[in-house]
Description:
The protein is about 35% helix and about 10% strand. Strand 2 (about 55) and strand 3 form a beta hairpin. The chain is of the alpha+beta class.
Amino acid sequence: MxxxxxxxxxxxxxxxxxxxxxLMDVAESASYLGLPVSTVYDxxxxxxxPVAYRFGTHVxxxxxxxxxxxxxxxxxxxxSARTDRR
Length: 86
């Protein structure tokens, strides 16, 4: 008997076998969105922004949630308020 082969253990979470979506921390998420880290924390305090996962003191964001949050922030173009003074 001796040491166990690594094949006896499930694959690591980064493995495709588990089909887990990559998660980003606050700094990585802010960089991905092109925003200051303080903005991401502000969203958390105000209950806005993308859905996040909390693991103890760690906050993580799935890329799909960041993309969905960006889509929710998209502003519709508004008609111009120009007045024609001829």
